């Protein structure tokens, strides 16, 4: 088995609830680091990328598509590069890295991994979210029940 190396890291844009990125789609935000990696690493043959694997914990709304594949297309990378989206909830990004590290190619593959979520669809971050009564104290349950 070949070894895996993390050769570069690019931080995706971070927003806050209701902030400037609230209406931005996760695949659009996911394309940003993919577009910048070739600029930062001009010596890499980007046509040799074998896979792009993104973790997306809550595939809802426009995130219900293949976020990784859409990010490849939006980033301007070669359209021959496939993309896979993994949902392991909070561990989605780490699982994407693990999947790339376990690639069984005889030569070390070039795989890109990341995590992308549009938090407006995550129930705990949504303004319309309802908390399960089991998480509330007895006094808070009484207030919620009116």
UniProtKB/TrEMBL annotation:
One of its GO terms (molecular function) is acyltransferase activity, transferring groups other than amino-acyl groups. It comes from the Bacteria. Residues 5-102 form the Thiolase N-terminal domain. InterPro entries: Thiolase-like, Thiolase_N. This is Thiolase, N-terminal domain. It comes from Rhizobium miluonense.
